Amino acid sequence: MHPDEKSQKRVEKLFADLNQIARASIATGENKPVATGSASRVKYEALAPSSAIDTSTASHEMDALLLRIRELEAKLKENEKTATPVSLYESEELGYAIRDDHVIPVQMVDSPIEDPDKVIKTPLTASGETIGALKIKPPADRPWTTDEENLANAVAQQVSLQIQNLRLLAATERARAEAQAANRLFTHQSWESFMDGIRNSERIGYVYDQASVTPFKESTPSEADVRETINVLDEHVGNLFLKADPARPLTDEDKAMISSVAQQIAQQVENLRLLADASHARANAEEATRRLTRENWQSFTSQRADSLGYIYDSIQVTPFGETRAPLDITFEQPLKVRGEEIGQLKVAGLKEIPPGALELADTIAEQVSAHIENLRLFELNEKRARELETVAVVSTKASTVLDPDELLQSVVDLTKERFSLYHVHIYLADESWNTLLLASGAGEIGMKMTSIGHAIQMDTQQSLVARAARERSAIIANDITTDQDFLPNPLLPNTRAEMAIPIIVGEKVLGVFDVQSEQAGRFTQEDASTYNTLATQVGIALQNARLYKEQSATVAQLRELDRLKSSFLANMSHELRTPLNSILGFADVMLEELDGPLTPYMDNDLRLIQKNGQHLLHLINDVLDMAKIESGKLNLIIEKFNLHEIMEDVASITSSLAHEKDISLQIDADSDHEVEINADRNRLRQVMINLVNNAMKFTEKGKITIRIAREDSNILISVKDTGIGIHPSQLEAVFQEFTQVDSSTTRKVGGTGLGLPISRRLIEMHGGRLWAESTGVEGEGSTFYVFLPIEAKVVDSEPVMRKN
Hints:
Elements: H1 3-28, H2 55-82, E1 95-99, E2 102-106, E3 120-126, E4 129-136, H3 146-197, E5 206-208, E6 213-215, E7 226-232, E8 235-242, H4 252-302, E9 310-312, E10 317-319, E11 329-337, E12 340-348, H5 357-400, H6 404-418, E13 423-430, E14 435-441, H7 443-451, E15 455-457, H8 464-471, E16 475-477, E17 497-505, E18 508-517, H9 525-591, H10 600-631, E19 637-642, H11 643-660, E20 664-667, E21 676-679, H12 681-697, E22 703-711, E23 714-721, H13 755-765, E24 769-774, E25 782-789, E26 800-801
Parallel strand pairs: 19-26, 20-22
Antiparallel strand pairs: 1-2, 3-4, 5-6, 7-8, 9-10, 11-12, 13-14, 13-18, 14-15, 16-17, 17-18, 19-21, 22-23, 23-25, 24-25
Helix pairs in contact: 1-2, 5-6, 5-9, 6-9, 9-10, 10-13, 11-12, 12-13
């Protein structure tokens, strides 16, 4: 037995002994039990009043023992909570060995193979997991062949599949057995509930003696020749006993017929039980319908101010209140809806009741009842349709307003007008102050309350609004004179009913939607559902309006920061470029030895200064160009020129770098040499130099090819290299500012990451496009394409036309 189970039984035994001791103490007055022997055996002896044992001492010891037992019980429960769960199906290790045509069951830890080093082992796998191994010891007289190894693998796969199938079959059988057991348990419980439901504590039985059927009260018949069980879904629910005629013994056909009769009886009894359950459920449904009808009529009549009674005196119909009700009532018929009485049809002034009058009155009462119910339902449907239409109108209005204050004010005004309410409020939650602040109210009273900063603490008990926020559900008070949670407001003296709906978006309470009416009993649970829908729509619209307001403010700040950044970059780039040009100029003068001869070290240092200065000047120019483009201050100078000449200039300018890296730079022979375009010569040259330099940076060997092709009224220029290429996922990223293809700290090439973004912007200002294509495979390189109209369609800039 498990130690915890032993401890549990020991504790239970101790408690049982204590209960006996307590009962014995009560029964004998001052006599106290004396424990002798072991802890599980208690002997009781009556003590005389003059015993040496003090009563208070024994009571104190008893309390201490009880306290100790409770401590032990608490520790036992703690151990039960932290106990390791027991597996329902314990794993086991199985193994079989075949040797000399004999199959030997073995444990996996006790393999019968003597020499494990010479064993060929093939794993057994199921669903990607290893579940065992197939071990084969090859014959000693010949080597193990490849075909035998393949055969062993195939056998291992078949064995793994078969083991998995057997596991699944066992799991299926276990699940089927559990389902059958659950089915039997359900049938048993259903029958137990049925027997209890029809108030039968004894077994039900009947006896038929070929003359009559009488109830059978005995537990089982005293004498029976044949007994057949009556089963429903494999659950034993009764027995069929039969005493045969001594002169005619039962044949096999008779016994088969008796078995068939028992099956028919079982089916019929189950049908009767199901019919009884269905009748009981139908009765419950009818009772619920009548109760709902009564509640609906009570709610309907409580909301109507006019009279619900009328008198017809063969001349005119007048409501109760304007005329006195007759006292000489001859007879009356109830008006019923779904079995619930909602009124009466009374006939007065008849001295004798004509034949058929009661039947006619009953027919009229039925028709009047049905018509009244139809009118009530029609009126409720009309009301609900108007409310839903109002919800749609208010929601549409709320979704079009982006200012939070204007949004809330329009919602309360529309709700008050469309729902014919006395007053409407919207409170917004302020978690930092734990308050509900009035954000908007309908009419002049609402504006006045809003202006004075009306607020309610969330923990206020006498407030429906605070309670709705705390409980996160609708709160209705249909009679404020009897509701203790109503918080009166001197500015709203005519309030008779109030409903507070929390405004919840996600898991957060944004506020409370509060509506008030001058009519008691104005609000129902259906109204709560309608207003809850409206409150949800208002909450979403309010959140969107807040986000829009925040985003608008953020966008304005970002635009201002962007403007300041562009202005700063333009000014700083100019201030940096001026002294840098001076440095480069003096370096050129010194390199030309105008100020005197230079030593080899001085010449080397000056050339380094010149090279790095020119690199820095190029970076500053890029930053200045980007700042001008973003600020819209970069203008294009449009002129007509030969495009092939520009490509030759680009090749000449970049040829020195190509020579240093031993890269072939060429213009494709198939290029169009005659095409002329209208564009900015210098900016297009700048773009092409950027593209060629970029190709050289990432090309260690091979060539770079420039090609010009005319397509109708457009030009397509391509720059193809044989470098490292660009991953397809990075083809657009390279055109973003300050983005590098290789952003690691060990990258081989430098740059600001502005060359390609500036080039794309310049091409787009001409009305063209710049993009890249690459497979990302090293050696295949990348191809950059420039697509330009022959007649530049200048955008984002005022073009300056150069006159030739």
